[in-house]
Amino acid sequence: MNDLDVSRVLAWLETAAQMLRDSFQEEREISQKTGNLDLVTDMDRRIEQFLVSNIREFYPEDRILGEEGTGDQVVEMSGRVWILDPIDGTMNFIKQQENFAIMVAVVENGAGKCGFIYDCMRERLIWGGPDMGLYYNGQPLQPPQDQELKDSLVAINWQMFADNVSNVQALAWGSCGVRIQSCAGTEFIHLLLGKQSVYVSKLAPWDYAAGRILCEAAGLRCSTIEGAPLAWLESIRGVFATPRAYESAIRFLNTQ
Question: Are the C-beta atoms of 165 and 254 separated by less than 8 Å?
């Protein structure tokens, strides 16, 4: 298994982000996956194909789990597995032309090795892992301040908030306020930069794998809303938070 070359992955991300920025000059092909709130574009597929082809060339022994199905059928996590979200926040990509991200996670034998999240329009890139530290636009990134929930902003999935799933509205009232980006990638960036202390959402593996690796490397807590450990291949309702805010968040989420 070839050693992971982080500089190579960073170069792929820069190229992919420029492809997305350039794409606003073209007409898009847009289709539904599971409904009118779950959209996919030709650029989702194009970016995933770009990343997959490069991984295949330089890391031919590795397996790939991609949101758009370009990679492999991954059912267990032995060896090295790449988990890709080519455009996280596709609705924002279509409607706002901002607030979307590329996310890449690298997992080795079930342990998170390195995560990458790139906010393409603001050119904010956080990457790193447990054995290499965290970096923000090329500079070392220190863990965010460990605030109490009452002193924090929180991010909550809009559908969970609207339906008050797992008492999230009480969680919101226990904080300084709610911010909703509808993009897991930018929510994780804000969490890691200390702009908010809690993120609660319904997420597929490609939505949270990179964020989980980065959060755990920063000493943040990551679990299901019931407090159970996360798996790599399961869709979840998850909580990602600084340690003190996490304890309060879990109490709210599990109080009926």
Answer: no
Tell me whether strands 30-35 and 177-179 are parallel, antiparallel or unpaired: unpaired
Neighbouring residues of 196: CB distance < 8 A, sequence distance ≥ 6: 152, 153, 154, 155, 179, 187, 190
Q: Could you give phi then psi for residue 156, rounded to 5 degrees?
A: -135, 135
| Alpha carbon 43 to its chain's center | 18
Q: β-pairing, 63-66 with 80-88?
A: parallel
Q: State the pLDDT confidence band at 117, using cuts at 50, 70 and 90.
A: very high
User: For residues 212 and 112, is the Cβ–Cβ distance under 8 A?
Assistant: yes
Q: Are 205 and 211 in contact (CB under 8 A)?
A: no
pLDDT recorded at residue 62:
97
Residue 135, SS3? strand
pLDDT of residue 37: 64
Instruction: Give all strands (DSSP E) within the chain, no chain letters.
Output: 30-35, 38-41, 63-66, 80-88, 101-108, 111-119, 124-129, 133-136, 139-140, 153-156, 177-179, 198-203, 221-224, 236-241
Strand partners of residue 80: 108
Confidence (pLDDT) at 28 = 73
**Helix 205-217 vs helix 184-192: angle between axes, to the nearest 10 degrees?**
10
